[in-house]
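[step 3/7] inverse_fold.run input=structure_tokens len=149
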């Protein structure tokens, strides 16, 4: 079965809508499983995209190592809490990674968590790539650990 082609504009629009829905959200990006930048909201420019790619790839690697050591199933989300901001990093079933930054003293972290989960659940509509089962077996798949032994 062939899926429809999704353009970069569609992905940017979907990420812009995600950022617009939550007070304090500053930007959103989608990365490939190996940390390559696939698309971002309008606020994301070249240098920020490169920096985020490296940071998120490292955090995902730590999260995946934790899932192997702690035997808690597949990695779903990493949240970094800073003094004035949060970084939400969520795995998407096809292996891609959503990252959203929210900042401010009066932000609603629960609202962002909800919107991130909603985006992940509907991600196949927005993402320009389809990855095979090998990628999803390492990220977000609770049964992957048993199959890899």
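[step 3/7] decode complete -> sequence:
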């Amino acid at each position: 079965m062939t899926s429809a082609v999704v353009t970069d504009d569609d992905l940017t629009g979907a990420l812009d809508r995600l950022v617009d829905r939550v007070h304090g959200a500053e930007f959103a990006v989608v990365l490939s499983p190996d940390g390559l930048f696939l698309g971002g909201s309008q606020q994301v420019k070249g240098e920020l995209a490169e920096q985020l790619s490296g940071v998120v790839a490292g955090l995902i690697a730590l999260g995946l190592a934790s899932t192997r050591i702690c035997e808690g199933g597949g990695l779903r989300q990493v949240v970094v809490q800073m003094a004035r901001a949060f970084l939400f990093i969520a795995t998407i079933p096809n292996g891609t990674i959503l990252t959203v930054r929210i900042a401010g003293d009066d932000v609603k972290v629960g609202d962002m968590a909800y919107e991130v989960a909603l985006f992940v659940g509907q991600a196949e509509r927005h993402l320009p790539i389809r990855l095979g089962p090998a990628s999803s077996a390492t990220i977000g798949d609770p049964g992957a650990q048993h199959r890899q032994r």
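[step 4/7] annotate
Residues 1-7, 131-138, 142-149 have pLDDT under 50 and may be disordered.
The CA atoms of residues 82 and 103 lie 9 Å apart.
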